[in-house]
Amino acid sequence: MTNITSREIRLKQRPVGMPTPDDFDLTTVTLAEPGAGEVLVQNLYMSVDPYMRGRMADRKSYVPPFALGEALQGGAVGQVVRSNHPNFQSGDYVLSMLGWREYFVSDGRGLRVITPGGAPLQAFLGVAGMPGQTAYFGLLDIGQPKAGETVFVSAAAGAVGSVVCQIAKLKGCRVVGSAGAADKVAWLRDEIGIDAAFNYKENADLKATVAEHCPNGIDIYFENVGGAHLEAALAVMNNHGRIPVCGMISLYNATTATAAPTNLGNIIGKRLKLQGFIVTDYQARAGEFYAEMLPWIAAGKIKWQETIVEGIDQAPAAFMGLFTGDNLGKMLVKLA
Ligand code: NDP
After folding, report:
1. Cα of 238 to ligand 1 centre, how many Å?
2. Quick one: average pLDDT of 63-71?
3. CA-to-CA distance for 130 and 99, rounded, in angstroms?
4. What is the position in ligand 1's atom list of the atom closest to the CA of 201?
5. Which of 54, 59, 72, 122 could pair with 45 as two cysteines, CB 3.0-4.6 Å apart?
6. First-to-final CA distance of the chain
7. Of 331, 336, 313, 335, nearest to 125 (Cα)?
């Protein structure tokens, strides 16, 4: 057996504002053969996700910051190449948090064997994985949708947003989505079949646009973006509306304190419920998600898109592309 060469992306410096290629290093490492109780895994796909931007900053959060000079981490699906571990066989597909590298050796902790069936392997990083769970629990647990209600979704053509839109439709809601490009709006309206969608970049008066597309007001605003989107939604929310606060991507690269919406008073007068959440809060209930989502996928009730870039060297560009809207659906990097 020979040693294995693997390329990985390390965090070279902490980004200030929008990340740039200079913040990342592509490094080649040599891995030793797996020892007793260890497996060698080749990553096939890795995920880039907006939350990783938060981990690039040195501040206290719900997950520790990435260390400088070390390989980044994130969701990945790979295949076991060699196993000296009783729970893994050569050829098994595994989900891990050891993305941003081509190969790794592990003692098996944090690895989960997955069986691609109704959905392709990489869907475990998207619709059948973390983003899908985020959509499912955020909408159903916090949003509590009821048939006939209006659900407004920002970043609606993204990994999380597009699943929120479709679950809301399955629950009998009227769904309105906002996205930043014409092809995204067309996909939402014509293929996913939501009730209305618009390009927020072409609508200077966001409040008026949201109001126009939600003539009966908003009962649930699924918050992915923050800033002007939140302000517009607050203005159009109905009494007793719910706002699952999933993310605020428009603020992640801010270098100065950003102004809060000017109309937060609506929370009181309209008796709104805003609740932040982290998908890992629902880890113990993941079974509920799979029990419903996998049959929906098998039945063709949930559709999805992927934007796939190839090669570990392209991973930083894929990550940066999340902040310029380069992705329709889930942004992924194909490694092998
Ligand atoms: P997406 O697939 O939605 O990709 C990000 C999208 O955000 C881009 O394609 C872009 O679409 C949009 N966007 C980027 N910058 C801006 C901006 N300044 N203003 C408006 N839209 C912008 O990513 P995910 O589905 O993975 O994540 C969506 C949100 O959910 C993020 O806020 C993320 O942090 C959050 N999240 C939260 C989790 C949790 O546990 N709470 C777990 C997973 C995700 P467009 O073309 O429409 O502008």
Report:
1. 24
2. 96
3. 14
4. 48
5. 122
6. 21
7. 331
The 10s digit of each residue's pLDDT in 124-183 is 999 999 999 999 999 999 999 999 999 999 999 999 999 999 999 999 999 999 999 999
Could you tell me which residues come within 8 angstroms of residue 84 by beta carbon, excluding any fewer than 6 positions away? Answer: 34, 35, 36, 37, 38, 39
Does ligand 1 lie within 6 Å of residue 134's CB atom?
yes
Q: What is the mean pLDDT of residues 285-297?
A: 96
CA-closest residue to ligand 1 atom 14: 323
Mean pLDDT of 65-74: 98
How would residue 240 be classed by pLDDT, with cut points 50, 70 and 90?
A: very high
Backbone phi, then psi, for 98, in 5-degree steps?
Answer: -110, 50
For residues 97 and 124, the answer to whether their CB atoms sit within 8 Å is no
Q: Which atom of ligand 1 is nearest to the CA of 180?
A: 46
**CA gap 85, 39 in Å, rounded:** 6
pLDDT at residue 1, as a whole number: 54
Residue 152's DSSP bridge partners are 176, 221
Q: Which atom of ligand 1 is nearest to the CA of 178?
A: 47
Among 137, 152, 160, name the best residue to mutate to test ligand 1's pocket (greatest count of ligand atoms within 8 A of Cβ). Answer: 160
Residue to probe by mutation, ligand 1, list 139, 192, 203, 224, most atoms within 8 Å of CB: 224
- Counting atoms of ligand 1 from 1, which one is nearest the CA of 247? 32
